[in-house]
Amino acid sequence: MTTPSVAVIPAAGYGTRLFPATRSMKKEFFPLVGRDGIARPAILVIVEEALSAGVDEIVLVVQPNDEALFREFFTTPLPPSHYARLTPDLQRVADQILEIGRRIQIAIQPSQEGYGHAVWCARNAVKDRPFLLLLGDHVYQSRTETTCAEQLCKMARSMEGSVIGLMTVTAEELGSRGIVTGDWVAESQMLMITACAEKPEPAYARHHLQVEGLAKDRYLAIFGQYILKPAIFDHLERSLREDRRERGEIQLTTVLDDLCRGSGALGVIIEGSTYDFGQPGLYVETLNALRK
To answer: For the chain, which residues make up each domain, given as ranges?
Structure first.
């Protein structure tokens, strides 16, 4: 598989866990400060992560009323008087945002029916191409000189099917993660995934989701980065047609479970960390982590 030419980033949530701050600002525009000391909106950090992997296009999935907001950020130049007040470093960032804007497409999620539904709403923009998928409320920090998304894409080049980034988590984290199980591919760090479960109960995980070689009460969780073949849209459409929901929503993990039990998918361990900024306490943790 060659490097995907397109990435999908769902950004259509309400941000209810960050209310009332999200009454005045979309959570995707909450500021994150990196090691360079520049305050970027979260959506820009995630888009830059995707571009680091070599994609040419970014599809943002947004609510209908938010389309103008996202378009304005990525395509509208600053007034000259504002631009002139920026430092040279920040002027370069302003120019880069407009360059990135030329690669942005917008897809609309007309109603909020879950993460899987948001991905399905990108189908017309993705067309028949494999695509990189990143969560819209997580940011990623590599433990190597290569970004997490670039790691995933490099490892996927020798593979034919869908590839899912993985990380090791403790039993205490089961309630906030999609968990996978499977069999290690001989003499490699790749896992042939045989099943996925969204936020499983500990008892279920202990009996059904253990992976050989991991310590007791250690599990493999979905990292939040995927390379998916366009066939995923067929699985999503079937879930929508059959109204297969968990907690009232169309979940991507449910569809990935179908995929893994059918044509299969490979999992690869990502050398990095993922940070959820969608809750107040986790947002603070994310700010602290990104400065290190």
So the answer is: 6-290
The rounded distance, in Å, linking the Cα atoms of 175 and 156 is: 28
Q: Which CATH architecture group holds 6-290?
A: Alpha-Beta Complex (3.90)
Whether 145 contacts 243, CB under 8 Å: no
Report d(CA 93, CA 87) in Å as an integer. 10
130 three-class SS: coil
| pLDDT at position 175 | 85
Cβ count within 10 A of residue 181? 20
Question: What is the spatial distance between Cα 52 and Cα 150, in angstroms, rounded to a whole number?
Answer: 6
The one-character DSSP state at 274 is E
pTM score, whole prediction: 0.93
For residue 39, the model assigns a pLDDT of: 96
- Residue 8 — φ and ψ, nearest 5°? -115, 130
**Rounded Cα distance, 291 and 223, in Å:** 21
Average pLDDT for 158-187: 88
- Model confidence over 10-25: pLDDT tens digits? 999 899 999 999 999 9
SS (H, E, C) 151-205: HHHHHHCCCCCEEEEEEEEEHHHHHHCEEEEEEECCCCCEEEEEEEEECCCHHHH
Phi and psi angles of residue 29, each rounded to the nearest 5 degrees, phi first: -105, 10
- Rounded CA gap, 276 and 17, in Å? 12
Average pLDDT, the chain: 92
Pairing of strands 272-276, 178-184: unpaired
- Cβ neighbour number for residue 4 with a 10 Å cutoff: 26
Residue 41 · residue 26 · CB < 8 Å:
no
**CA atoms of 186 and 195, how far apart (whole Å):** 19
DSSP 3-state of 275: strand
